[in-house]
Amino acid sequence: MGAVPHLTELYDVALLDLDGVVYVGPRPVSHAPEALRQARTAGMRLAFVTNNAARPPERVAAHLTEIGVEALPDEVVTSAQAAARLLAEQLPAGSKVLVVGGEGLEVALREQDLVPVSGADDGPVAVVQGFSPTVGWPLLAEGTYAVASGLPWVATNTDPVVPTDRGRAPGNGTLVAAIRTATGREPVVAGKPEPPMHREAILRSGATRPLVVGDRLDTDIEGANAAGADSLLVLTGVTDPIDVVLAPARLRPTYVGHDLRALHVSPDALRVRAGDATVGAWHAVVDGGGLRLTRASAHAGSGGAEGLAGSAASDGAGSDGGVARVRGAASDGAGSDGGEAPVRGAVSDESRVGAGSDGGEPGQDALDGLRAVCGAVWAAADATGDAAGATGNAARAVGDSVEAVTGGVVDRASVEAALDAARITRAPARPY
Ligand SMILES: [Mg+2]
Q1: Domain closes at, from 268, 297, 324
Q2: Is residue 62 part of a domain?
Q3: Ligand 1 centroid to residue 12 C-alpha, Å
Q4: Are 108 and 207 in the same domain?
Q5: Which residue from 141, 273, 319, 403 has the fewest beta carbons nearer than 10 Å?
Q6: Residue spans with biased composition (Low complexity) (predicted)?
Q7: Under a CB-based contact definition with an 8 Å cutoff, are residues 120 and 98 in contact?
Q8: d(CA 167, CA 431)
Q9: What pLDDT is recorded for position 343?
């Protein structure tokens, strides 16, 4: 890609989420081991940043190494460490802390000169709660007694579920909810998207220009935005392309890539920005409540595959002859334009997400289409953002926010239809 630097050269440390980014359960995510090996070779340092507090860094690093991603314990940052630091900043060394969790928390507390205990009658001065598959009713009861007595309560994270190879299982957020329900109290939360987790990752990695890499909008990306860090969303985990398109501002990534190979791509081929609605061969318009996605030419793959089209956001490609048009399921009247080819037939195979191409990055054409759609929809949503805020419509949950931010701006069905017609779909295997 010539002299244009890749992400590996623009950022000193990649703060990598694990589940859905580097591995899914016992398996590495496709291309992850090789892409991370090459990132190290290019001079980028790696930090493995996980909300999962169950395992200490040594075991996380061993698991990573086992699946082909070499990692040292010092490169692993867990929400248990972030929680332990929060407590250590408030408590004298040697203080006893009740652990509603497992080994990961015990190791993190000892590292901060705090003493883990397992009973409410053992003299704890605080309670820390983090996921462990061994947590059962007796320990939840000890935690409830201690929290009800008024002790400080820190949760490593509040992710409601943990992915397992059999599906979604109760995560720490679900277990925290048990003590919350029983006591009526709220914990302080250390993990993503809260600031302590990012701070822990910066402190341990020494990053001066970090790139947060994650698969979740409401933890990884929201945490990066809250900290003012740039972020790369990869589509190998829980986030569907439609989720990115409909995301409110606080959940929007700086870059979108298919997988960790994106680290070796120029930022101009990955950047997503409100208003950048012409990207590569694609042009997106929000009009009359629907999304219209057009493609400049059935043979434009070579242009779109260069990966530098982001800077050509206003070149008026839409006025080229031979424009193909995607129509959403909610018809917006595009059919009245004669002579336009439906995109489904016009898109070449190279635009398939994840497919290799002989010219540019794998799947670059489809990625460009997604970026164009985001550029158009984000700008349209932002234009009404003030009104949504003024009516007190701000919602915390992702789904609610989607409705609050995009309600009346763009019809979801038309976005889905456009993405589908342009084959901007995620890889077929859903990890969880
Ligand atoms: Mg993840």
Answers
A1: 268
A2: no
A3: 21
A4: no
A5: 319
A6: 308-334
A7: yes
A8: 9
A9: 39
Residues 17, 218, 220, 332: which is the catalytic one?
17
Distance from residue 216's CA to the centre of ligand 1 (Å): 6
Q: Give the helix/strand (H/E) hosting 23.
A: strand 23-24
State residue 288's pLDDT score.
82
Asked whether residue 73 is domain-assigned, the answer is no
What pLDDT score does 356 carry?
37
Intervals of the chain under pLDDT 50: 1, 299-360, 362, 386-405, 428-432
Domain ranges, residue 245: 7-51+194-268
DSSP per position, 334-350: GGGSTTPPBHHHHS-GG
Whichever domain contains 249, its CATH number is 3.40.50.1000
**Residue 424 pLDDT:** 77
In-domain check, residue 60 = no
Give the β-pairing of 230-234 and 210-214.
parallel
Q: Which residues make Cβ contacts (< 8 Å) with residue 286, sequence separation at least 6?
A: 292, 376, 377, 379, 380, 409, 410
Dist. CA 51 → ligand 1 center (Å):
9
Whether 305 contacts 365, CB under 8 Å: yes
Neighbours of ion ligand 1 (CB under 5 A): 17, 19-20, 215, 237
Task: Clarify whether residues 309 and 411 are in a common domain.
Answer: yes
Structure confidence at residue 310 (pLDDT) = 31
121 is a catalytic site residue = no
47 and 92 both lie in a single domain? no
Q: What is the pLDDT of residue 225?
A: 97
Question: Is 130 part of any domain?
Answer: yes
What is residue 421's predicted lDDT score, i.e. its pLDDT?
A: 78
* pLDDT of res. 23: 94
| Residue 349: Cβ-neighbour burial (10 angstroms; 0-12, 13-18, 19+) | exposed
- Taking Cα atoms as reference points, which of 284, 311, 304 lies closest to residue 370? 284
pTM, 2 dp: 0.81
Whole-angstrom distance, CA of residue 205 vs CA of residue 167 = 32
Total domains in the chain come to 3
290/400 same-domain check: yes
C-alpha 87 – ligand 1 centre gap (Å) = 25
- Contact indicator for 241, 291 with CB cutoff of 8 Å: no
Q: Residue 17 catalytic?
A: yes
Report the distance separating Cα 9 and Cα 370, nearest Å. Answer: 25
- Please pick, among 12, 19, 215, 287, the residue that the annotation labels catalytic: 19
